């Protein structure tokens, strides 16, 4: 007997680029004191008021099967949040609740791509993107961006791949791993390519509350884009609810109706008490979201001050999200080699830019996910290490 090629081919073979992360975790398991600046996990936990709402719901009996599309209350809360933030008319019928943003990404591609279709995505990219596309039987096709453009994608590069035939395009702004917030010009160019080449646009907007410069624009709000855009959202980053696994897809009603059928045959929904807590959290309004985002805004300013006094480590404009993309090419090392050197020498763990594709070769991604004092100390050490290597 053999396993399917679809399941055995999800990672594409070879290293997944996360070797430094696994190495750091082994060191921690062996008792070493490693400062982890790797994954996007908040150093705060879910707010106690949200947990209290979750507890009330569970103890109140909402522990059985919940409605597969999502509870009416949560679908309406998500729809109202999206409409308030984007100005696009949105109702509960435009919303499917999913077990986190990752399940939403999978479902969105299942809805828009047939087996063998070319599905475009932007490099650098969140690590699961190509595997998600392979998992639904499509062919992942990368569109590279450039550090010299602050990793803003060029419409002409997307069009060049779209012209060869493609079903969908996946974008992510604010971007993980680069921190880039796509400009109005960038998004208008992307929208034009989608309209011209009849592409579905899948917009991963899980960092929409973490914008430090510029403005988050949902491409669903652009002319003639609402009917061809699926927006992926999540409670993970905006409300520090990573472990609760609750996200959503926002899209045309017809698409959502078919995605409800997919959910019925796959996830069968999200626990009701978690959905109740998520609806409660959203209904607290932007003050709660701002509080969750505040540490990353503050640490970004700490980083800018530290990096301003040297010219060895370059900072890609950190416009949003909880990450910094640092250019370490002056050391003569790849991002992976630099990350290994930093971990071996100073027990500070970062993610190589190469973990997220080829466009960020010679960079490392730093997650701003430890307390201010440790973060500042670690970043200063990183700079000193880079300067030593550059000499």
TrEMBL record:
Its cofactor is pyridoxal 5'-phosphate. InterPro entries: Aminotransferase_I/II_large (IPR004839), AspAT/PAT-like (IPR050596), NHTrfase_class1_PyrdxlP-BS (IPR004838), PyrdxlP-dep_Trfase (IPR015424), PyrdxlP-dep_Trfase_major (IPR015421), PyrdxlP-dep_Trfase_small (IPR015422). Keywords: Aminotransferase, Pyridoxal phosphate, Pyruvate, Transferase. Its EC number is 2.6.1.-. Residues 33-381 form the Aminotransferase class I/classII large domain. It holds the Pfam family Aminotran_1_2. GO terms for biological process: amino acid metabolic process. The keyword Secreted does not apply. SUPFAM superfamilies: PLP-dependent transferases. GO terms for molecular function: L-aspartate:2-oxoglutarate aminotransferase activity; pyridoxal phosphate binding. It catalyses: L-aspartate + 2-oxoglutarate = oxaloacetate + L-glutamate. Belongs to the class-I pyridoxal-phosphate-dependent aminotransferase family. This is Aminotransferase. It comes from Shimia haliotis.
